[in-house]
Write a structure and sequence with these properties.
Number of strands: 26
Largest sheet: 22 strands, mixed
Length: 564
């Protein structure tokens, strides 16, 4: 079961406005359409906490959000201040070995927008401070050790992000517009694990200490309207990403060799990145337009990809950004990934754009130095999991090092709609459709990329009449057979789901009613990850491998909105 509430209140005058937004949401574990595991206690140290065979452990959460926005508008200026608070007492994860037991975040955003004789100016300053904690939640084993006297594994994180952005739009002529700007961002991160006894003692484990990631970018974009039919955009962005990390340590002397090797390295890295985009749009008439584009995009590694350091099995299993159940270790020598994409879009529609439309976008992307993963081997020390056996394992959870790869992706997106009928007596009926296909693989090994969505489509029939709005939606997903061998990714079967929803608006009220997965079909989402929602999740082999996280069974939801 899940429940939530949202409150929005606003005041607006000629120049000043004030708005408050607040929301709360809480949910217990959801259930799959049928059993996918044995029923029983969630963990050996929780004999009375029973999970049914169809219950998806660690899928519960609770969150509270508040935001206050103040704005002042002059004749040509707008100043807006937004303050935000987020409090997440817990959020459990069915595809992670740990759960979030605390997340407190404070956000500050100041935005300015002004209109001048030469064009428009936008400026933004922001800051976010986050305090984050992980441990084992309600459905995962908490007590470890031979005597069951080691209480969990506390993991704490403190992050701070500050930045400024400046952008100017210059109307050079009736044909030409130049947009220029800059971005500066400062990010600091500490990630430490307090000792809890047993092998996780007596010292604090520093996963990332004094992590730094600073960005400085400048950009320019030239847009030209050559004629009513032709428009071009050319953009250039030059940036620098500077990263560093302080000295680390493990729980005890068993981690000393790797910590010493990491600390002896020069850990400071500076990436000089360049992005380029070019787009041409041709509007043939009021029923057809065509777009052709090229994009050269660069992404530097994040702190976890570069600076996590231990190859001890327990430490690696705590580093996972994708939910596959495997363990990961960072790589300070990672290079930024560089993606080159060619795409084209054809947009056909009726003259009004309201009766029918079809949009088709094929694309191909080649990524040099894509930040993926490889099996780790040759680890240092008796605790390492980077062994020869790990390098050749074809089943089970494995241990990987973030690594650069050269990959290729290609795909297409197709969407469209058609108004089937429109009458005063019966209302308006509209058919919507969407189809997506993408394939990606390593160009050197031929291995498929992880969590690539298989062929999928949506078909929806919408009806509107007066205050009523209703939709019947069919969701279809093909089987995932192209899987990542390096991660021992598990295939998933194809499925089709029917969802129904309706809403009625009357005066100040709106009621929403929906039924998802009407026929209660069992399915496993291709991007849902590995099921790790219960049991002895800290251990490497205690959880069964090969069970994807199942999707939600039949679910009914009801919502009410009141405006006054």
């Amino acid at each position: 079961d899940a429940r939530g509430a949202h409150l929005a209140a606003s005041y607006a005058g000629e120049q000043f406005s004030l708005r408050y937004d607040g929301s709360i949401a809480q949910a217990g574990n959801y259930k799959a359409a049928r059993g996918f595991k044995s029923a029983g206690p969630a963990a050996s140290d929780k004999p009375t906490h029973w999970l049914g065979a169809d219950e998806v452990g660690s899928s519960s959460y609770k969150t509270r959000n508040h935001a206050l926005t103040m704005a002042w508008r002059g004749s040509t200026d707008l100043v807006e201040l937004r303050l935000g608070l987020q409090d997440i007492p817990f959020q459990n994860y069915p595809n992670q070995r740990m759960d979030m037991t605390r997340n407190d975040s404070q956000q500050f955003n100041l935005r300015y927008q002004g209109q001048f004789g030469w064009g428009r100016l936008e400026a933004r300053a922001y800051h976010e401070a986050t305090r984050h904690a992980m441990n084992f939640g309600a459905d995962k084993q908490f007590w470890y050790g031979p005597a069951a006297n080691v209480p969990g594994m506390p993991m704490d994180t403190r992050g701070r992000t500050s930045g400024v952005q400046l952008r100017g739009d210059l109307e050079l002529s009736e044909r030409d517009t130049l947009r220029v700007g800059l971005l500066a961002q400062r990010y600091r991160l500490n990630d430490w694990w307090l000792p809890s006894g047993g092998g996780m003692a007596p010292d604090t484990f520093w996963n990332i200490r004094n992590g730094q990631r600073d960005r400085l970018e400048v950009f320019a974009e030239w847009e030209a309207r050559w004629s009513p039919q032709w428009l071009t955009q050319i953009g250039l962005r030059a940036g620098q990403v500077r990263m560093d990390s302080g000295a680390v340590q493990g729980y005890n002397s068993g981690y000393a060799a790797e910590a010493k090797a990491f600390n002896a390295r020069d850990r400071q890295r500076t990436d000089h990145n360049l992005d380029f985009t070019a787009l041409a749009r041709y509007t043939h008439n009021d029923q057809a337009s065509y777009e052709f584009g090229f994009a050269h995009k660069t992404r530097s590694p994040n702190l976890y990809e570069r600076y996590t350091w231990s190859t001890g099995g327990m430490a690696m299993r705590m580093i996972n950004l994708v939910g596959d159940g495997n363990g990961y270790v960072g790589n300070p020598d990672l290079r930024p990934e560089v993606a080159n994409t060619l795409s084209a879009t054809a947009d056909w529609h009726d003259a009004t754009g309201e009766r029918w439309g079809v949009k088709l976008t094929p694309y191909v992307t080649r990524v040099n130095d894509y930040i993926g993963a490889e099996r780790c081997s040759g680890g240092v020390g008796a605790m390492t999991s980077c062994t020869a056996a790990n390098a050749g394992a074809t089943q089970g959870f494995v241990y990987l090092r973030f690594a650069n790869q050269d990959v290729r992706l290609h795909g297409l997106d197709l969407s469209g709609f058609a108004r089937l009928a429109d009458s005063a007596a019966w209302g308006r009926f509209t058919l919507h459709g969407m189809l997506g296909h993408v394939r990606g693989k390593d160009r050197r090994t031929g291995d498929s990329l992880y969590a690539i969505m298989p062929l999928n489509a949506r078909l929806a029939l919408a009806h509107d009449k007066g205050g009523w709005s209703s939709t019947a939606e069919l969701l279809m997903v093909g089987a995932k057979t192209h899987v990542s061998a390096v991660r021992n990714e598990v295939p998933t079967a194809g499925y089709a789901l029917l969802n129904l929803r309706t809403s009625y608006a009357w005066q100040a009220w709106r009621l929403d009613l929906g039924l998802d997965n009407v026929f209660n079909r069992f399915y496993q989402h291709p991007q849902g990850g590995a099921y790790l929602g219960q049991g002895r999740t800290m251990a490497g082999t205690a959880l069964p491998w090969g069970v994807p996280v199942p999707g939600m069974g039949r679910s009914l939801y009801l919502g009410a909105t009141l405006k006054f």
